[in-house]
Amino acid sequence: MAVGTPAGTLFIVATPIGNLADLSPRALETLKTVAAICAEDTRHTRQLLSHFGIDRPLLALHEHNEEAMSERIVERLSGGDSLALVSDAGTPLVSDPGYRVVRAARAAGLRVSPIPGACAAIAALSVAGLPSDRFTFEGFLPAKSSARRERMGRLASETRTLVFYESSHRIAESLADMRSVFGDDRIAVIARELTKMFETVLDGTLAELHAQVEADDNQRKGEFVVMVQGAGDDEEAQLIEGRRLYAKLSEHLPPSTAAKLAAEISGAPRKALYGQGGTE
Ligand code: SAM
């Protein structure tokens, strides 16, 4: 750090997820006054800035150069420059780059300060009408169906509301996988294009929602947050987990051992697990 020069602050600035009027006055003020803005896609951010008449230098910061850029950013902050970090939309670091830079800045004893604002997951939860005192944010599911089902399988007995990000390419496939892993009757909510012209919030069982999305091309367009109600009571959750474990373990162990272990780990009754992926 240069002697006598106070270090700068790294501001983590949330930007709109659709409606530009959602940029907060404090975000605007910060973006106008920092020495430079670290942006995921500089062309995209340039458009946002020019809409607001802001002309600040941009530094590209994406998942491929984040490690290398962290050092440069720490140097500039240490030298007294305050910088902002934005992503393409919403809150940086939430399914977006930035955590390595924040970690590096904090490790160097520099001030990192949030300018909060839009976040698709939180906006979606706020209109879903699902239990939201406790929830689990799962971000994007894997692109391949086998890996996706595996990830969902590990969440099948989760009792908190599940929150996923999904793209238009995979929304129908993901809903189909959710039906098969969580069951047709699990309640879910799909929040699409929030704060934009075609904002839609659909709720129903996974079977109903999947059918609705399959039947209407428009419901497969845009950006999505999918929220799935958590597994029901403890007994049901234990049974789902026990069956999942039994199916996995019985690939490698005799069925009786697999059932014993699955029952012990999940708390489900051993007998209820037989016939799920094998028989004793
Ligand atoms: N950092 C962002 C945030 O705070 O929400 C998320 C970035 S992530 C790369 C982009 C994903 O967020 C999209 O694929 C979609 O799942 C979700 N998303 C972003 N904007 C949205 C919107 N307006 N409506 C619904 N989902 C949105």
UniProtKB/TrEMBL annotation:
PANTHER family: RIBOSOMAL RNA SMALL SUBUNIT METHYLTRANSFERASE I. Keywords: Cytoplasm, Methyltransferase, rRNA processing, S-adenosyl-L-methionine, Transferase. It is found in: Cytoplasm. It catalyses: cytidine(1402) in 16S rRNA + S-adenosyl-L-methionine = 2'-O-methylcytidine(1402) in 16S rRNA + S-adenosyl-L-homocysteine + H(+). Belongs to the methyltransferase superfamily. RsmI family. GO terms for molecular function: methyltransferase activity. Its EC number is 2.1.1.198. Residues 240-274 form the RsmI HTH domain. SUPFAM superfamilies: Tetrapyrrole methylase. NCBIfam families: 16S rRNA (cytidine(1402)-2'-O)-methyltransferase. One of its GO terms (biological process) is methylation. It comes from the Bacteria. It is an enzyme of class 2 (transferase). Catalyzes the 2'-O-methylation of the ribose of cytidine 1402 (C1402) in 16S rRNA. This is Ribosomal RNA small subunit methyltransferase I. HAMAP family: 16SrRNA_methyltr_I. InterPro entries: 4pyrrol_Mease, 4pyrrol_Methylase_sf, 4pyrrole_Mease_sub1, 4pyrrole_Mease_sub2, rRNA_ssu_MeTfrase_I, RsmI_HTH, SAM_MeTrfase_RsmI_CS. Residues 9-209 form the Tetrapyrrole methylase domain.
